[in-house]
Amino acid sequence: MNAPTARKALEPDASLDAFRADRTYLGADHLRNERRTRLVAGICVVSLVIQVGGGLAFNSMALVAGGVHMAGHVAALVIAAAAYALARRYAADPRFSFGAGKIGYLAAFANAVVLGVTALVVLVESVERIVAPAEVGYHAALPLAAAGLVISLFCAWLLRPAQRAHDHDRLGDLNLSVAHLHLTADAAVAGLAIVGLGAGKLFGWAWADPAAGVLGAVLIAQFAFVLMSRAGAVLLDMNPSPELAEEIRRRLQAEGGRVIDLHLWRLGPGHHAVIAVVAGEDARPAEAYRVQLADLPGLSHITIEVRPEGPAR
């Protein structure tokens, strides 16, 4: 390859200003989600003390399970809030090549692990109570279980994702989603506790309360597995959207040449990056391809390499 051809092949696809652009890649609702996460963490601490104390006082395994689960929520919410603060603090730190948007996904993965450990603890305790039943104070435990359900539903409502007219990111802010799912799972566990306590009170089924704990543990474990899979996919830079990748390929090839390499990955909530190599004798300048991708929502970082001479043989 002669010198002029080499310079053309390596020509940057944007001006120097574009390479100095903002690369924070934080979610659009970062501050809102951070504030709400801190608020919910405080509420959950109060609920934790009430449920565990009541469960121990009235020998309700379902209440203890709810309290232990809530302890996992408190840890998860603290981690989530810290992730928001760290991502904001290091948003412009040049040591992060593609911004600090993935800190939230790292926290989400850690919280999914916490959720899995919580499920194991609840399962072990519930099975022990099935093997060795204990006297349960149903009259006092039921109101506490109902209060736990109300608190969990209220906290889940506070952590609901913001609704946007054009939400193109199906995964969204996974850090918030995990925190929200923690509370949703707790509401489900609280509901199961009410059913178990009610069955024990009405029919004298001593096994119903710990059985509710077992079902809650299974539900929590399922949530944990799904969350670990989703967060792990982002941390390992898996293709977040085959549909978007195919649309990018289609648009690039419509401008001439053929795409011989394409990488799409997530940078943060609502932000994706793409690197594409276009080759062929009829390939156009890199900027022409960038224009074709400019209106794709969520495509925040675009790198195009053009090889007019075609792929090496």
Strand proportion: 5-15%
> How do the SSEs run, as a string of H and E?
HHHHHHHHHEEHE
Q: Which regions have little confidence, pLDDT < 50, spanning 5+ residues?
A: 1-21
Number of domains: 2
Tell me the span between the first and last alpha carbons: 13 Å
Global shape:
elongated
Mean of residue pLDDT values:
80
Q: Give the radius of gyration.
A: 25 Å
Question: Any chance you could write out the topology, listing elements then pairs?
Answer:
Layout lengths: L2 H7 L6 H4 L10 H29 L2 H29 L13 H29 L6 H21 L15 H30 L4 H28 L6 H13 L3 E11 L2 E9 L6 H8 L5 E9 L6
Parallel strand pairs: 2-3
Antiparallel strand pairs: 1-2
Question: What features would you describe in this structure?
Answer:
The protein is mainly alpha-helical and 313 residues long. It folds into two domains: 30-235, Up-down Bundle (Alpha-lytic protease prodomain-like), CATH 1.20.1510; 240-307, Cation efflux protein, cytoplasmic domain (Alpha-Beta Plaits, 2-Layer Sandwich). It has ten helices and three strands, in the order αααααααααββαβ. A three-stranded mixed β-sheet has the order 1-2-3.
Structural features:
313 residues, mainly alpha, Alpha-Beta Plaits, 2 domains, 10 helices, 63% helix
Give a summary of the structure in a few sentences:
Helix content is 63%, strand content 9%.
